[in-house]
Design a protein that fits this description.
mainly beta; 2 helices; elongated
């Protein structure tokens, strides 16, 4: 009956997790870590004057599908968004950053004749501390959004508008093992995210319903590694990398939604990811000058009942 609402709540949680993981990746080792140890970039020596500030902008798209579960008919989600951020090196080995993520998601539940649009704004903070090959990072996210849903009742469209919120935290520990211009970076992360959607009352159509709000809590562990290699040519750096992570959603609590139609009420359970899964991806980065860098990322998530594919194009400038 409210497949679109269930899908929207899950998408809010997934967007928060995606943002947390991007912030954690920016704060830890890998190509960004190599730049911190060689801040001049472009083949410059470590004696070069450090570039303390970094600003960046990203455009991304996500394609996601969820399989049917119980009373949920499955969905397709398409997200487009952008991120802008600023980070600063406070002291050698200590960095903080602030980011804003704005996205819009189109949700389609074709078998239930339901759809929704989700607009979410997220604010992110990350920090990292380097000690030799070790890096510890922390990422925090707070966001809010609006959901507009529609349901084909056969005798018109029943629609509703309501709010959503997302909060999350991620901590990650990396070890950067460097061999000449190659690296292997084992990674261990813990993530907690909590999303909520507001209560709503449909208008229009046949038999519009009233639904309670819902909360979604998820705790997960991610363990894996990144491998990468860079080449220096004509004072430019080309860096290629790939990563793989095992994911354990060791705690998931999705509250049921109470749906009322007149004097009758039913309880609808939310959907969850499979406990175990895998994340993988690849990145290509080109430093055009000591300060400017272009990069292209691909990220994929594989669960027993979900697949997600994301592409990101970014531009970074340091000074």
């Amino acid at each position: 009956m409210i497949n679109g609402d269930i899908s929207s709540g899950t998408q809010v949680l997934d967007l928060g997790s995606n943002f947390l993981e991007r912030l954690g990746n920016q704060a830890t080792n890998g190509f960004s870590g190599m730049l911190r140890s060689n801040p001049g970039g472009g083949g410059a020596s470590e004696a070069s004057e450090a570039l303390r500030f970094r600003t960046f902008g990203e455009l991304y798209g996500i394609s996601e599908t969820t399989a049917a579960q119980g009373d949920f008919f499955g969905d397709r989600r398409r997200t487009w968004g952008g991120v802008a951020g600023l980070s600063v090196t406070l002291l050698p080995g200590a960095n903080i950053g602030f980011s804003v993520d704005q996205s819009r998601t189109a949700i389609d539940v074709p078998l239930a004749l339901q759809s929704a649009t989700l607009d979410v704004t997220q604010f992110g903070f990350n920090a990292s501390v380097d000690r030799g090959p070790w890096t510890w990072a922390l990422a925090l996210v707070h966001g809010f959004g609006n959901i507009n849903s529609s349901r084909d009742t056969g005798l018109g469209i029943a629609s509703a508008g309501y709010d959503a919120r997302i909060d999350g935290v991620l901590t990650e520990l990396d070890y950067d093992w460097t061999i000449d211009q190659s690296r292997i970076v084992p990674k261990l992360a813990l993530e907690y995210a909590r999303a909520s959607t507001g209560a709503f009352q449909e208008v229009g159509g046949l038999d519009p319903v009233i639904a309670s709000g819902s909360t979604l809590d998820r705790s997960r562990m991610l363990i894996g590694a990144e491998v990468g290699h860079y080449w220096i040519f004509d004072r430019k750096i080309l860096d290629l990398s790939a990563y793989g992570k095992f994911v354990d959603n060791f705690s998931q609590d999705f509250s049921p939604v109470l749906v009322s139609l007149g004097s009758q009420s039913i309880v609808v359970q939310g959907i969850v990811e499979s406990q175990y899964g895998a994340d993988t991806g690849a990145s290509a980065s080109l430093s055009l000058t000591n300060a400017a860098r272009l990069y292209l990322n691909y990220d994929a998530k594989f669960r027993a009942n979900l697949q997600s594919h994301q592409g990101t194009l970014g531009l970074e400038y340091r000074w």
